[in-house]
Design brief:
Layout: E1 4-7, H1 11-22, E2 29-33, H2 48-51, H3 64-69, E3 72-76, E4 79-83, E5 88-91, E6 96-98, E7 101-104, E8 108-110, E9 123-124, H4 129-138, E10 144-148, H5 152-163, E11 167-172, H6 184-196, E12 200-203, E13 207-213, E14 216-222, E15 227-229, E16 232-235, E17 239-241, H7 244-248, E18 257-259, E19 270-272, E20 277-280, E21 287-288, H8 293-307, E22 319-324, E23 327-333, E24 340-346, E25 351-358, E26 361-368, H9 371-382, H10 389-393
Parallel strand pairs: 1-2, 1-7, 2-3, 7-19, 9-16, 10-11, 10-16, 11-12, 18-20
Antiparallel strand pairs: 4-5, 5-6, 8-17, 13-14, 14-15, 20-21, 22-23, 23-26, 24-25, 25-26
Helix pairs in contact: 1-8
Bound molecules: flavin-adenine dinucleotide (FAD).
Length: 404
């Protein structure tokens, strides 16, 4: 009982507030928002938004009227501490908010590059709307970008920069792109596609310094002694979960705010959701911290259900997507620990799926330009079923029949 205070108004925070009202919660709901915008969607920041000319309003989940009509109090500011004994949250403004239940939806922040010149104006990151907006503005005046990190965000930006006519180099320490997230088959496909588009990808190397003259970036030096000229550097080397507020309040944290399978911290009045939450997962075993829209919004729905009397352990089915150039990658399931990959379709035809197995158990499917396979995978995995690898590889096998 009592007010629900939500710290952070990204995908998780927004969804929780909306789901609470949908489920009929009539108490006070406050959404603490430390960004100077209405709650907005993050994926387009490195995709459509950065390419196009639509204004920030195109990203908003809902117009201001929605929050007013739903009596969701959007409170501008930053939560700075939690008094668990008195159930109060202190904001940077000095305002104190009482809570019945507190939800930490604080997300993650950019991991910063610790190199000389890394804080020059032409060294950019891409996590929040203001950063995407800044990049969108300066890209047309730039000639050559070096992107540090070949993860999803680095590669999405690389394709956009290339489409906008910039020379583009991508530097990656791992031996292949998106190495932590996708199979070698999918990495190889994207490496080839980006190279065809004229993007130079440098694998197994590190940036050792950013060179500048008169405060302007001139290039990046690599661990193998090479030097890449650039007038723009974009850093995409991962994120750090925002766990400090929880840690300072004495809540257990590790590589995220530790929560149980109900997304509750060790304090029964405090939950954590989304990118910041390290949650116990009976389905996958052990603890997981995921960075995806699906994870944040399904966490939010689970907590909203609990707070309105329908308590169930969180058991979401992960899925994800990334748009790079003309290619759409979609991932269903969690492929960690796979020992066998079966391809359906042909990478040379620019449409295929990699079915990932551990033994005979299907863990997940990475689909490239095959939305049907992706939707099939989400449905099949949602039913806790597998598919024999021979059937996955056989294009004449009708996947739909496996759902019957
Ligand atoms: P966030 O959306 O990060 O929201 C957290 C909010 O909390 C932020 O606004 C932060 O400023 C605020 N906050 C933190 N501390 C405080 C505090 N003390 N007080 C008040 N507010 C605070 N996922 C996909 O599934 N598909 C994609 O294609 C995809 N593309 C992406 C592209 C980009 C450029 C980025 C950055 C992310 C992308 N993601 C994608 C990941 C996805 O956006 C995140 O997983 C999702 O936003 C997580 O939601 P969240 O609510 O946990 O955190």
């Amino acid at each position: 009982d009592g007010p629900v205070i939500i710290v952070g108004s990204g995908h998780g925070g927004y969804q929780l507030a909306a789901s609470l009202r949908q489920a009929g919660f009539s108490g006070r709901v406050c959404l603490i928002n430390d960004e100077a915008h209405l709650p907005y969607q993050r994926p387009p920041l490195s995709k459509a938004y950065i390419k196009g000319s639509a204004g920030p309003e195109s990203l908003m989940f809902r117009p201001e009227k929605f929050y007013h009509d739903q009596k969701i109090e959007l409170i501008a500011g930053r939560a700075v501490s939690i008094d668990r004994a008195k159930r109060k949250v202190l904001l940077a403004s000095g305002e104190m908010l009482d809570y019945g239940h507190l939800v930490l939806a604080t997300g993650a922040r950019n991991r910063l590059l610790d190199l000389p010149n890394a804080n020059l104006p032409d060294v950019k990151y891409l996590r929040i709307l203001d950063e995407s907006e800044a990049l969108r503005k300066i890209v047309p005046s730039k000639k050559r970008a070096v992107i540090i990190g070949a993860g999803f965000i680095g590669l999405e930006f690389a394709s956009t920069a290339r489409i906008k006519g910039l020379g583009v180099d991508v530097i990656e320490l791992a031996p292949r792109v998106m190495a932590r997230a996708v199979t070698a088959e999918v990495s190889d496909y994207f490496q080839a596609r980006h190279r065809e588009a004229g993007i130079r990808i440098h694998l197994g190397v590190q940036a050792t310094s950013i060179e500048a003259e008169g405060g302007k970036v001139t290039g990046v030096s690599l661990s193998d002694g090479r030097h890449l000229p650039a007038d723009l550097v974009v850093v995409g080397v991962g994120v750090l979960p925002n766990i400090e507020l929880a840690a300072e309040a004495g809540l257990p944290v590790a590589s995220g705010i530790i929560v149980d399978e109900h997304l509750l911290t060790s304090d029964p009045n405090i939950s954590a959701i989304g990118d910041c939450a390290l949650f116990a997962s009976p389905r996958f075993g052990g603890s997981l911290r995921l960075e995806s829209v699906q994870n944040a919004t399904d966490h939010a729905r689970c907590v909203a259900a609990r707070l309105t009397g329908d308590s169930k352990p969180y058991d979401g089915h992960p899925w994800f997507w990334s748009d790079q150039g003309d290619d759409k990658l979609q991932i269903a399931g969690l492929t960690t620990g796979y020992d066998r990959v079966v391809l359906r379709g042909d990478p040379t035809g620019k449409a295929f799926s990699a079915f990932c197995y551990k033994g005979d158990k299907l863990l997940g499917i990475e689909s490239i330009n095959r939305a049907g396979d992706h939707m099939f995978g989400r449905r099949l995995l949602g039913m806790d079923r597998s598919l024999a690898p021979e059937k996955a590889a056989d294009e004449s096998f009708d996947l739909k029949s496996a759902l019957a």
